[in-house]
Amino acid sequence: MSRPLDGLSAIVTGAGRGLGRAEALELARLGASVVVNDYGQPGRDGSGEASAAPAEEVAAEIRAAGGRAVSHLGDVSDHEEAGALVQLAVDAYGKLDILVNNAGILRDRMVFSMTEDEWDSVIRVHLKGHFNTTHFAAAHWRARSKAAGAAPVYGRIVNTSSEAYLAGSAGQPNYAAAKGGIVGLTTSTALALGKYGVTANAICPRARTRMTQDVFAGFAEPAGDELDALAPEHVSPLVGYLASPAAGRINGQLLVVHGGMVAVMERPKVAAKFDTAKEVFSYEELAERLSPHFEGRPANETFAAAEVLGLKRG
Fold this sequence. Notes:
Blueprint: E1 9-12, H1 18-29, E2 33-38, H2 53-64, E3 69-73, H3 79-93, E4 98-101, H4 116-147, E5 155-160, H5 163-167, H6 173-193, E6 198-205, H7 236-242, E7 254-258, E8 261-264, H8 283-294
Parallel strand pairs: 1-2, 1-4, 2-3, 4-5, 5-6, 6-7
Antiparallel strand pairs: 7-8
Helix pairs in contact: 1-2, 1-7, 3-4, 4-6
C-alpha cells in the first residue's frame, strides 16, 4: 500500500527531542526517508556539550519501525554545517524533497535586561538557522529544475514560527523577533521558489516540550493513557500534510496548530486609513485625526493583540 511520502526524502532539524522528534517520526510513517538533525546539547539555552545521541536515537527508532533514517550532528546556525546537512540528504537518498526547520534555543529576558549575546544567539539559531538550510535546499531545487529544462521539481519547506510572534511575549524579545523574521523569510521564499514547484509555509505550534516547560507549567497534564492536549503529536500530522503532494496549492501561508485545532491566519489588513487634507501631514492634523481612532482602547494594547484565537501571552 502506497503512502503519501513514499520515494521522498526529508530533513528535520532539531529532531532529537520534542516537536522535531514527533515530526521526523510522522514523516517516516508517511513513507519519507529522513535525515534526523540535532545538535544534542542538554540545555534548552544551547548550553552544554553537543551529543550525537538524541538524533541517532530517533533515527534508530525510525529504522526499527521499518523506515529509512540517518542522523546528523550539526549546528544549523553554522552556514557550512547547514550545507553539509543538505548534502548528506542528497548523498544518502539521491535528492532532497522536504525541509522541516525546527531547531531553536531559548534565552529569555526582558528587553531592558537582555544582553547582546542573549539576543544574538537566539536570532542566530532560529532565524539564521532557518535561512542557512533554506539557502542550500533552494539552491539544490533550482539546480534540479534547471537540469530538467526549467521543469518544476518537488520541494516542500515547513518552517517553525510561534505564537510569541502573533500574540507578543514580554520576556522573549529575541525569540519573538526571530519567529516574526521566520514568517517574513517564509513568504519571501514562497514567492522566490514557487516557479520551481517548491512551496514554503510556516506553522505556529503549541506543544509541551523542553522549550516550553515553563510556559505550560500551569496547564493540566493528562491522566492515565489520555493524550496530552499539548502533545507534539497534535502538531506533526500538519507537518506531514504540508510536506505531501496533497498540499501543493498551499504556499506562503501561516498556520496555528495545537490540540486538535488548525487555524489558517490571514495577512495583516488595514484597520483604518487617513489621507492628508493638504500636500503633507502636519503634526496638528495627525493628532486631530489619529488620536480619536485609538480612544477607548486599552492603553497597553499591542499591534498583535493576545485575543487572537484566545491566545495567552508567553
